[in-house]
Amino acid sequence: MANTPIHSGATRILGLDPGLRRTGWGVVVSEGSRLSWVAHGVVSPPDTLPLSERLLWLLDEVGEVCAAHACDEAAIEEVFVNVNPASTLKLGHARAAVMLAPARAGLSVAEYSPNLIKKAVVGAGHADKTQITFMVKRLLPTCGEVKADAADALAVAITHAQLRRSSRRDGGGEVIAEFGAGNLDDNGRTRPLRHSASLRATSPFASRTGRRS
Fold it and tell me: Of 73, 77, 152, 178, which residue is the catalytic one?
């Protein structure tokens, strides 16, 4: 997908949703209070390859994404511990390969838990993939159609963009999500939030009872 132009003072962030079969990636530009979409996609190594070659394939492909989109920073989702130890171990292998790609290119790599990403983007810590995709498309209206794995990766990038921009927290210790849907003006710039409840109130998936997700 085509790049958007790099603006002075802008930071290109690569978000990564690791997986051995499908690794989602998404690039956004964070410039002041403005967040814009650059590109997204999914890399899928052939299932017929041995594990070692699939990991090398992921390393090379993600490395090419970093170079192609001139990324400045990267962020990756932490491993979700599966009930199947073998699956968790394989995911860990894939995550290591995916994480090494931006690190090898000299990028800093931040890590975020799945629940934090969901809360930052959707306003609910246990949101499903449909909700994440909906909110990603709302926050990045120019992204067009996006598959679930790529939507997750864009959500990681959005989370990193808002956390690197502001370290403010409310009394409960929750990160204030500055790119919450409904807090964007007509030019795509963020309106200031007084506390994180503002994000939950503007997301159609946030709890209406006031309970924490």
Answer: 77
| Alpha-carbon distance values, 162 to 17, 190, 201 (Å) | 18, 10, 18
The verdict on whether 72 is a catalytic residue reads no
**Residue 149 assigned ligand-binding role:** yes
Q: Look at residue 104 in the predicted model and tell me its pLDDT.
A: 96
Instruction: Give per-residue pLDDT as tens, 123-169.
Output: 877 788 889 999 999 999 999 999 999 999 999 999 999 898 764 33
18 assigned to some structural domain? yes
Question: Averaged over 104-115, what is the pLDDT?
Answer: 95
Q: At what angle do helices 129-139 and 114-121 cross, to 10 degrees?
A: 50
CATH code at position 88: 3.30.420.10
Give me the number of domains the chain comprises: 1
Q: Which of 17, 72, 73, 178 is catalytic?
A: 17
Q: Would 89 be classed as within a structural domain?
A: yes
- Residues 162-184 have a mean pLDDT of 48
Please indicate, yes or no, whether the overall pTM of this predicted structure exceeds 0.90.
no
User: Which range of residues forms the domain containing residue 36?
Assistant: 11-165
140 Cβ contact partners less than 8 Å away, ≥ 6 residues apart = 28, 35, 36, 37, 154, 158
Q: Is residue 46 a part of any domain in this protein?
A: yes
Answer yes or no: is 124 within a domain. yes
128 is a catalytic site residue: no
Model pLDDT for residues 202-212, shown as the tens digit of each residue: 455 554 333 33
- Which stretches of the chain are DSSP H helices? 51-68, 85-104, 114-121, 129-139, 148-165, 197-202
